[in-house]
Amino acid sequence: MKNVSRIIPCCAADTSGVCSALYELGGMTVVHDASGCNSTYATHDEPRWYDMHSMIFISALTELDAILGDDEKLIADVTAAAHDLRPRFIAVCGSPMPMMTGTDFDAAAAEIERRTGIRTLAMHTNGTHSYIPGASEAFCAIAKEYVRPAAETVPGGVNILGATPLDLGLTGTAESLRAWLRESGFRVVSCFAMGDKLDSLMQAASAQVNLVISQTGLAAAQYLYDAFGIPYVCGLPVGAQFSAVIAKALRSAAKTGTCSFPCAQGNSAAHGAVTVIGESIISGSVAAEAAMQTGKPVRVICPLPFDAACMNGVTESPASEEEIARDLAGNPPETVIADPLYRYILPQGTRHMELPHFAFSGRCFDRRIPDLCGKQFASFIKEI
Asked: Of 148, 149, 161, whose CA–CA distance to 219 is shortest?
């Protein structure tokens, strides 16, 4: 059976992506799913839950509700909760069960908005895709709903797009990224969406350029480019050399209005001495720094949805456990940089440099996720 994982886990689902993207923005996120499933979205896939609560709820969908198609129960419960909590907005998203029964989330959201007077967003998740399309839709929806033309542009202003613990963890990367931008002469206007509230995101149109640090932020970046002409740069400043590349690209984009993809420049089309497995923009950034540090060809394998421009024109990449294992066995690299759980499908004799990915292995190695923009990761790269 294709795409069956026997050894490695699957990534966090699209529903978790929505919850993570909207976590800090003061809205109420309602997942139409069975009672008890809230722990998956709000705790297992969300490390902020222990220190920072958010209005994430489950509809407690029952078998009888699903059979009878009782959407009124969902609408009435969300309306009652919204009247009590008065969130900034409401987001309603799905799971596998409502997908099978054909729940119309657009209609449900419209009715909830009519009854509450609170802007309600329909998120088209079903729990069968990765976190990337879920978080991507959520970020883009926030940009479309709340970002308006700015009266003036902030000189050197930058929006950070695509920041969630699912990709960055909670070991300081988001904070180090802000510090690096300030040290490089930029001003952070907003961050979609770690460390900022909705009011900050509403000012995003005043930025000169957007920095897309993961695939989850690319759709919002494209919308902001189309709507307000703000160019974007794709890449995460990891290591000294690649950070300098990102800084130069941001200045160039702000000046010329041209988008660029520095994260793609280190991805070798051929099977390289080093292979990085993971999310496309972060893995591509790691690959670019590794290539500059070592002079060796570095290849990126992205088992998640990606844009070809972020992968140096690559349109297909091994995605399933079987495909990744076969690819690595056919052309064994010297070193693989990947989450610790990939060790079980690596060719014998291949060196494994562990780079935990929270969306993949969750809390198993969360304390070992490095600060990707700090000195800790610069030391990591030098060990290749």
From this structure: 161
Q: What is the CATH number of the domain that holds 75?
A: 3.40.50.1980
Q: Does the residue 309 lie in any domain?
A: yes
Does residue 304 sit in the same domain as residue 255?
no
pLDDT tens digits, 229-276: 999 999 999 988 999 999 999 999 999 999 999 999 877 766 778 999
Per the domain annotation, does 218 fall within a domain? Answer: yes
Structural tokens at position 153: 């542009």
Specify the number of domains making up the chain: 3
> What's the pTM value of the predicted model, to 2 decimals?
0.93
Q: Which residue range(s) make up the domain with 82?
A: 14-129
| pLDDT one-digit tens code per residue, 335-349 | 999 999 999 999 999
Say if residue 117 is in the same domain as residue 151. no
